[in-house]
Amino acid sequence: MFRLRHLLLVAVTFLVSCQPSSDELLGRVPQDINLGTDGTTVVALVPQNATLESLLRQQHLSADVTASVVEAIRGVFNPRDLRADQNYWITRTLDGLFREFRYQINPDRLLRVVFSDQPGNRAASFNVGVVDLPKEYRLDAVSATISRENNSLIGAFNANGENQLLPYLVSEVFAGDIDFNSDLHLGDRIDVLFERAVRDGEFVGYGEVQAAVIETGGQRLSAYRFVGPDGKAGWYDAKGQSLRRPFLRSPLPFDPRVTSGFSSNRFHPVLGINRPHYGVDFGAPEGTPVFAVAAGVVESAAWSGEAGRMVRIKHASGYETSYLHLSGFGAGVREGTNVEQGRIIGYVGMTGSATGPHLDYRVMKSGSYLNPLTAFSRIKTGEPLSAADLANFVSVRDRASADLAARLPVAAETAPR
Questions:
Q1: What's 283's domain CATH number?
Q2: Among 42, 309, 343, 359, whose Cα sits 20 to 30 Å from the Cα of 12?
């Protein structure tokens, strides 16, 4: 969660003659400004390939004013982070002089640049700040079912009017138990209790998932969010057993598909010969983030011939994972880097010998290759809660189960088990 940043006072070198009120400067919600006879406001979307400078010039600000605004902003926001299709506002006085610029960084943050005339100063100044936008969290629940028409996690939730962030959050909850690339079946059902973020009555995102229940392949898995005495949140089953596993089931988000499996004799589409394929290929768009499936140390992050850009990570208990054909490496990922589970270590590409963008993911233990789809299936989950924490957890679990059942009457069978 981003925090409210301090407003900065920046000296610039041009003169204008208007002064916004302090209430206007500290306003927390982007909205059209009604200036009456004092000025006008333009509300628009950032065009494709625009820079902050070109955006301001397009709105008829002079070169000197534009340069001053851009320089003032650098202290709190990198102008290179301007993104297309985001809202922005420019307010001018009736005689055309600059008064205010606002840019919607994301649903939670707003960049504001307001001219502030300082009496007695020959140089004008700006008040510049990034403001956190307030929002309200409301507890809600939704049920999604895998069907022929909606045969992916995203599709099932989209059919209920939710965007793709919610199924992504659900996939993180069960990342150690379910590979959403390959483990889903027709008729599988997912019930989720979560926080819906709203601002002025409109949906702006999601908060924390509080509980989730999935029925898949004849088994029923439940997960409850619990914050321990150390202040850290974790996911636990109905008995208080941690769902965190040493290894994730997949190094990719849940959308990609398996395009080539583990094999001792596979026809290579580029080389035109049969030879072993010691990994699993996941088809995915170029640029899709690739996650470290477990904590470990990067043994190499470099070009590796036919494998293209490749990251190899050494883990505990003799395991080693490799990620091939990457388009690029994650920030700070290099030989000797310690990485945590879930860290982005690269991005899907088609470097080396590849006919299209995909990830070739490989697993070794003690020098022998394993099928990545089954390599970690027998590894146990994390530790259970202590007896001291279990009573508090049971209270949280029962309350979440009751909330879920009340909001999803059809899912009344969600009693802990």
A1: 2.70.70.10
A2: 42
Whether residues 401 and 353 share a domain: the answer is: no
239 touches 256 (CB < 8 A):
no
SS3 (DSSP) at 8: strand
Q: Could you give the number of structural domains in the chain?
A: 3
CA 176 to chain centre: 18
Name the region of 356 (left: φ>0; alpha: ψ -120 to 50; beta: rest).
beta
CA–CA separation, 222 and 401 (whole Å): 10
Strand partners, 41: 91
Cα–Cα nearest to 404, from 140, 225, 172, 214: 140
Give the model confidence (pLDDT) of 359-373 as tens digits. Answer: 999 999 999 999 988
Which of 132, 163, 183 is the endpoint of a domain?
132
- Whether 187 contacts 218, CB under 8 Å: no
Distances (CA, A) of 58 to 61, 93, 392: 7, 17, 58
End-to-end CA distance of the chain: 34
Name the helix (H) or strand (E) containing 365: strand 358-365
Q: For residues 348 and 53, what is the distance between their CA atoms, to the nearest angstrom?
A: 32
Cβ-contact 288, 281 below 8 angstroms: no
Q: Are residues 264 and 364 in the same domain?
A: yes
* Assigned domain for 252 exists: no
CA–CA distance, 382 with 246 (Å, rounded to integer): 8
Q: Look up the CATH number of the domain holding residue 141.
A: 3.10.450.350
Name the token pair of 110: 């707003």
Q: Alpha-carbon distance 252 to 259, whole Å?
A: 14
Q: Kindly report, residue by residue over 196-255, the tens digit of the pLDDT.
A: 999 888 888 899 999 999 998 888 999 999 998 778 899 999 999 998 888 988 898 765
Q: pTM for the whole thing? A: 0.62
Task: Give the containing element (helix H, strand E) for 248.
Answer: none
